[in-house]
Amino acid sequence: MVEDPLIGRLIDSRYEIVDRVARGGMATVYRAHDRRLDRRVALKLMHPHLADSPDFVSRFRREARAAARLSNPGVVAVYDQGSLDGVAYLVMEYVEGPNLRDLIAQGPLSVKEALGLVSQLLRPLGAAHRAGLVHRDIKPENVLLPSDGSEAKVADFGLARAVTEVAQTTTGNVLGTVAYLAPELITSGTSSSRADVFSAGIVLYELLTGVQPFSADSPIQIAFRNVHEDVPLPSALVPDMPADVDELVATMTRRNPEERPEDADAALALLRDVHDELTVSELAVRRGGGTTSMRDLEAMKTGLEAEAPAVRAASAPSPQEWEDSQDSPHVGMRTVSLPIGSIGPQSGRSARRAQRSALAADARQTDRLATRPSSSRLTRRALLGGGVLALALAGGGGAAAWYFVAGPGRKVTVPAIVGKSQEDAQAEVEALGLVWASPSRAYSDTVSAGAVISCEPAPGQQVPQGQAVAAVVSRGVETMAVPNVVGKTEAEARKAIQGAGLTVGSVTKEYSADVASGKVISTNPAAKKVVNHSTPVDIVVSQGKQPTTVPDVTGMSQDEATTALENAGLKRGTVKKDYSDTVPKDAVISSSPKAGESAYYGDAVSITISRGPENVEVPDVTGMSEEEAVSALEDAGLKARVEYSLGGLFDKVRSTEPAAGTRVKTGSTVTVTVR
Which InterPro entries match (predicted)? Predict the structure, then answer.
């Protein structure tokens, strides 16, 4: 096997390529070492054929900058971009752990786990949609599961958009992973946040069933089915699947984009409503039985509600059993380039055949759902539609025309009630002869409390009089109280913050003289502060005491030594005095710890101050007056004893004992003879 020539290469004098991680339809991913910041990063190098398009390079740079501005804990961070031999590359956060595809390979998940993981996907996707970014390539491979148990991260924001736009403008093709392409991308090349919602709905279906919704011999056949067939309900493979989950998948994967939630935030609100309505036993439903997943639930914090994981049943089927005899189970995972419009609306007899087939499929789904005990809006809508159809067929000619044009069977347009107060919305709905169903409530970052977030049927849709309109009314912005994690380990702090429904922001390390290494010093926002649910909680973790080096204060005065120690983060400790024949009096002889030794900020350093030499030389005071001689001896650290000759009449020193020049101990007595 030929080794990749890029292994070991240094890019931009900064990124050293360590090894190759993966190769996809658009790029090759390498693990690299950022020498400048001493950290591990992922370097994604575009395939060389993309470098031939100047338009791609400019779009790539623009989208990379936009993605880098998208700061969200659920998004793989973009650090840098550049060019290697004319080929564009991105430098991104390196996430240790598997992706969602690896998890799906272990078999289907329970309803609770699937909803939890998709909610982790929709949260950062919603942040992107609010910032005006569309991903365009949502699939399990782009959802990473950090090995530290933190929430999932979405990768490749901006990259798919840049590649897709260039493919459309230069070749008239749409590029993407075929199983997750929204119908409108295939038929017209247009996409919006609703296309990302469609892809997320396919991911939800796959998590619940273990397989993609459509199988075929070739990618073009799967694309054809995406355009002309409704995504099957999960209950077709999982008989115990709750009807509300069926409806959630159906709503997110409507072929008409206008019938889907408008963005990931709206889809998340619907998902939370479904989760809140399900019982514990319904949340535990899993295809083929079993009671737990391949991944610990504690490591899949959903923000919905915390439950202890159960133990996986020993009889749980193997991943192979979920293949369901697909002709080519991997076709749907391929990145393909399809001519835009090559698959489009049908006409003539083929259209009528497709319509009859779709109606028959819808009828079968309606019959099955109508027999299941559920309060699902999908069931109510199916029953109501069936009643109207029966009534219309019972009449004939003009009677039928009257029924649909002027009678109770006529259709009205659902009013634009999104953003209006619940009271005003209800009045508008009822004024048109529609029924105001008991609304559900959800938190919203963009719609004020008491106003309508969305409704089903959607505004602008034609529905019969008497149709129930179920609205989602805003609770306002969801707020959470920041838990007190000071003194906990980083892992304990992460668990507590995520358990409170918040996300962990940046984690910085600081030295602390008071908090042990590895424990949390503080958070921002502070503990007990009530904040918006999307507010990241930054953590400051202690590195323990800050190390320092004891400075050399030898020869300094006591005050100078004190200042030097404080500048090094140390305190002056005890002060001793001792004689020194080499260090001047009042200067520092030594310190403890010694100069150059390691210490920590706040430690005390003791110093020893010189008293001067222990032995001094007797000064020559001959010929001095008594007063002058005594003063000179005392200045030398000696004591004077005066004796008089001739009564000291002349006040002159005749001699000393010991004689001048003799070395004696400091403090010794010298006899002075004065005459």
Answer: Kinase-like_dom_sf (IPR011009), PASTA_dom (IPR005543), Prot_kinase_dom (IPR000719), Ser/Thr_kinase_AS (IPR008271)
Q: Is the pLDDT of residue 604 over 90?
A: yes
C-alpha span between 61 and 162 (Å, rounded): 9
Q: How many domains does the chain have?
A: 6
Q: Residue 320, Cβ neighbours under 10 Å: how many?
A: 7
Identify whether residues 87 and 196 lie together within a single domain.
no
Q: What are phi and psi of 60, to 5 degrees?
A: -60, -45
Same domain? For 336 and 189 the reply is yes
Q: What is the pLDDT of residue 337?
A: 56
The pLDDT score that the predictor gives to residue 540 is 96
Q: Domain holding 28: CATH number?
A: 3.30.200.20
Which residues are CB-neighbours of 435 under 8 A, at least 6 positions away?
429, 466, 467, 468, 469
What's the mean pLDDT when you consider all of the chain? 80
Q: With a cut of 70, say whether residue 596 has pLDDT above it.
A: yes
H helices within 601-669, ranges in order? Answer: 626-635
Question: Does the pLDDT at position 300 exceed 60?
Answer: no
CB burial of residue 468 (10 Å; 0-12, 13-18, 19+): middle
User: Which alpha helices (DSSP H) does 540-625 contain, by range?
Assistant: 558-567
Q: Find the helix or strand (DSSP H, E) in which 574 lies.
A: strand 571-579
Average pLDDT on 471-498 reads 93
182 within 8 A of 82, measured Cβ to Cβ: no
Chain center to CA of 246:
29
Segment 500-524 shows an average pLDDT of: 93
User: Tokens 């365009």 map to which residue?
Assistant: 136
**What is the secondary structure of 410-452 as a DSSP string?**
-EEEPP--TTSBHHHHHHHHHHTT-EEPPPEEE--SSS-TTBE
Structural domain includes residue 350: no
pLDDT of 282 reads 94
**Percentage of the chain modeled with pLDDT above 90:** 53
DSSP letter at 580 equals -
Alpha-carbon span 37 to 322, nearest angstrom? 45
pLDDT-derived band at 125 (thresholds 50, 70, 90) equals: very high
**Domain span holding position 538:** 479-542
In sequence order, what are the beta bridge partners of 42?
31, 92
Residues labelled catalytic: 137
Contact present, 557 and 586 (Cβ < 8 Å) = yes
Alpha-carbon radius of gyration of the chain: 40
3-state secondary structure of 24: coil
CA 435 from centroid of its chain's CA atoms: 42
Greater model confidence, 422 or 23: 422
Q: What is the reported pTM?
A: 0.49
Question: What is the token pair recorded at 615?
Answer: 């032995």
Q: What is the pLDDT of residue 261?
A: 96
Check if the beta carbon of residue 179 is closer than 8 Å to that of residue 333: yes
Assign 295 a pLDDT band (cuts: 50, 70, 90).
Answer: very low
Structure-block tokens of residue 227: 């355009």
Task: Answer whether residue 401 is part of any domain.
Answer: yes
Q: Quickly count: other Cβ atoms within 10 Å of residue 114's Cβ.
A: 26
pLDDT at 320: 33
For residues 663 and 490, give the distance between their C-alpha atoms in angstroms, rounded to a whole number.
67
Q: What is the CATH number of the domain that holds 517?
A: 3.30.10.20
